[in-house]
Amino acid sequence: MAEVLVVTSGKGGVGKTTSTAALGAALAQTGQSVCVVDFDVGLRNLDLVMGAERRVVYDLINVVQGDANLNQALIRDKRIDTLSLLPASQTRDKDALTAEGVERVINELKGRFDWIICDSPAGIERGAYFAMRHADLAVIVTNPEVSSVRDSDRIIGLLDSKTEKAERGETMEKLLLLTRYDPVRAERGDMLKVDDVLEILSIGLLGIIPESPEVLKASNLGSPVTLANPISAPARAYADAARRLRGETIQMTVPSDRKGFFGNLFGRRAAA
Amino acid sequence: MSVLRFFTRRSSAPAARERLQLLLAHERAVFGRTDLVALLQDEILAVIAKHVAIDPEKVRVKLDRQDTLATLEVDIEIRTPAAGALKLAG
Predict the structure, then answer these.
(1) Mind listing the UniProt keywords for this protein, alphabetically (chain B) (predicted)?
(2) What is the ipTM of this complex?
(3) How distant is the Cα of B45 from the closest Cα of chain A, in angstroms?
């Protein structure tokens, strides 16, 4: 049974697209078939982060409006053949997405893939609403910083009220993916700790992605960090998160490029 | 001086945590996230507001959860009659 996952945050620039690409690639590396869908209509970037920007012919809006079918629009990753991308369009018209159209596309994708990962645009407008609408599970990407935590809280409120699952009276599972985390600064008391953010948002924990130059290097190259440098700290953190999504119990650590010291020091158990 | 400041330096994360907890308790009430603290804040306020004039800005509701017990801290500033009179006079 296909699982629909939304990667969302409210605030922009916290790592939604990076995380969508990295989690999608990591899940696909475990042998699952994965489709990552860019819902950021008008400002598509998932194609660029995944290195497929020159292969975009048709996009989500073309499929929603019936101008192209999924086979024409889906871009299969050249590195992992179980990973596909459905890009957003560059058109400025956000009204081009319709509720019926999005539902039809998601249902069709569910028939073809194990995982559908919807990369939400920032904000709480139409695009974000459509991205979360059909989700079974939400990954809340948050930086340990006040404005990001506040916006995540708003998004959690919307996930609990505006999604199909919420409207059916079911509880949407929401998991925190804490990105750009620096255990040294947190320990020094100058950055919110993992537990602070978890307590404030009252959700489970999917993973802690350490601040690392490897993330920028990977996006420079157009490769999910889990593929660009699989042994780097953020790649290992994303790979662990992907395995947790598959139901495995993996000890929660903050991987470090500096010989695993913090990984041991900050070992904790996943809430998920 | 800088050495002294180094040792007495207050960390900033607890401030972030406290500010967020206060803000989100309020925002959840406004935006409708069903949350115990927000719900309590609304209902406690409604009861008190029936009898005394209170400034919603000067209300703090804080829920601290520990392993075995939780404490609910309600801090409400109420204008004294004297201050009210002063304000009226002003």
Answers:
(1) Cell cycle, Cell division
(2) 0.80
(3) 22
